[in-house]
Amino acid sequence: MDRKLALLLEARDLSPRGALRPLGGGDMAAVYWLETDQGAVVVKQDDAQRLAGEADGLRALHEAGTSLRVPEVLALGNGWLVMEALPTGSRSPRSSAALGEGLRQLHSHTASEHGWPRDNACGRTPQPNAPMADGRAFQRERRLLPLARACHARGLLDAPLRRRIDVVAEALESWLPDAPASLLHGDLWSGNVLHTPQGPAIIDPAVYRHFPEVDLAMLTLFGSPGEAFFEAYWDGDEPFDWARREALFQLYPLLNHLLLFGGGYRSGVERTLAAVESG
Q: How far apart are CA 189 and CA 202, in angstroms?
């Protein structure tokens, strides 16, 4: 075992039982399961700054006091993050509804400024979070335009497509009302939701405050959380412009996937951009 990890575990009185066992799904970092005399833990090895941002996000989600389960941060340091291990179960209409209710509780924590006190990362991509008073400006200056520039610089977006993104970003005030900034998970795709025997849990956050539809759009980007989820989350009718908001807030993660994984995501960016343009 890595000596830095061994010292970190020792400082928290965690006594390993056996070797680290790799876990699947860790595209951005090395993730392991480790049995200890005090119970199982999940261990992640990555860039120290990214891990610090993740730990900060986990603590913020935990402190929000919702019905969602959030892994407790047990130790952090020297490129390692040690977290509580959560048991996994299977998704059901009941657990999907509980996820919707818990996410509605999370999003009820609002602030006047969009952003977060520190930058973090979405995958390997640095995520700037310097606060702004207007959510439309935040989406434009901290999300869409930086990712469009980065993708264009790598030859992943041609000039016409980048100009279309610029036009959409500059026109947000024409149709999207500003709103108080909700506390977000920030990277809530289905792989970051666990359905445990004690209820749904959320992991691997990229926390900040912004429009609540950010989390919803991420959940529907590669599938659907199910009808029971939306019935619980909306607790009534969905916003009349949900389809356009969904497309808008899927642009940033699609651009991030394009930047991280290459041109296979360009068609998704184009389709989603067209949906925003058509209103």
A: 10
CA distance 44 to 60: 19
Q: In the prediction, which pLDDT does 90 show? A: 85
Its pTM stands at 0.95
Distance CA 183, CA 87 (A): 25
b vs e for 54-92, b when ≥16 Cβ sit within 10 Å of the residue's Cβ? bbbbbebbbebebebbbbebbbbbebbbbbbbbeeeebe
Q: How far apart are CA 208 and CA 117, in angstroms?
A: 8
DSSP calls for 147-158: HHHHHHHTTSS-
DSSP character string of 94-139:
HHHHHHHHHHHHHHT-EESSBB-SS-EEETTEEE----BS-HHHHI
Secondary structure letter of residue 141 according to DSSP: I
210, 142 in Cβ contact below 8 A?
Answer: no
Cα separation, 140 vs 120, in Å, equals 18
Other CB atoms within a 10 A radius of the CB of residue 137 amount to 15
Q: At residue 241, what is the residue type? A: D
**C-alpha span between 194 and 4 (Å, rounded):** 29
**37 among known catalytic residues:** no
Q: pLDDT tens digits, residue range 95-106? A: 999 999 999 999
pLDDT of residue 25: 61
- The amino acid at residue 25 is G
Q: Which residue has the tokens 């869409």?
A: 144
Catalytic choice (187, 204, 237, 241): 187
For the sheet with 181-184, list strands across it.
110-111, 181-184, 208-210
Environment class of 220 (CB within 10 Å of its CB; exposed 0-12, middle 13-18, buried 19+): middle
Q: How many CA atoms lie within 13 A of 183 on its CB side?
A: 20
Query: How many CB atoms sit inside 10 A of residue 191's CB?
Result: 12
Q: How far apart are the first and last CA of the chain?
A: 54
